[in-house]
Amino acid sequence: MGPTARVDTRAGAGARARDWAEIQERMLVPLYEAVYERLEVRAGTRVLGLGCGSGLALLLAAARGARVTGVDTDQERLALARERLLADGERDGEDRPAGTGTVLPADRITEAAEVAAEPGRAPYDLITAFQPIGTVAGDAQGLVPALDSAIPLVERGAPVVLAGWGPPERCATYAVLRSADGPVGGPREGSPRPPRRDDLEDVAARAGLEPDGSGRVACPFGYADTESAVRGLLSTGVFDGAVLATDRQRVEKEIGEALQPHLRRDGTVWMPNVFRYLIARTP
Fold it and tell me: Is the pLDDT assigned to residue 188 strictly greater than 80?
């Protein structure tokens, strides 16, 4: 769900970040848990999360005993991640040491080496890039440079996890994302494109990583009502180009109309989706 441009919506950047944290981010929990289970993330595992958002994936890893560090370009989401990790550390301070969770702006990723470093070994055991790519042209543009900065911070052969959308025919939300094209006038700049089968492998190759397994995870998007669905989807950034090209009110209307086939009798919205992850190894 990586945007090519960022815009502050009507409610402001802070409200938008909270919409992400409170509505949208949880949709990917099955993906986070599947990866952590497969890679046996546990007490002592050092995790570096690229594009950590408001920190939910970090929090789940910390709950397993991992020492986590996150970086992100969105300052509002980072502030929420700090709140979450601090609150979690205060609740469980007797069980986990101080410094279990840290978040940094993306341009300070080199400082991450100092966060979890211990004598005689590399600071991180695992790099995650859970922000799914593959629906908007250029949504992986910043990922390769981020990986280039992060890879020196892990041991040779350490796993790096990349995530992306599954096939459009298995992702009900993709049809809603296509509403960013608008009902008239053809595709807008930054409009969604169909995910390609080798999107993740292409990023891995450009970063000099060696693929070492993959998986698919069901991540249905469920919302209490249409309003929360619209807010959650807008918080992803996928619709930023549409908002810039027209206005937020029109985009909200288009999303709401696209959600109608997924509206259930009780007013909730339910969209089955499949996400894919790739495990690659550092050289």
Answer: no
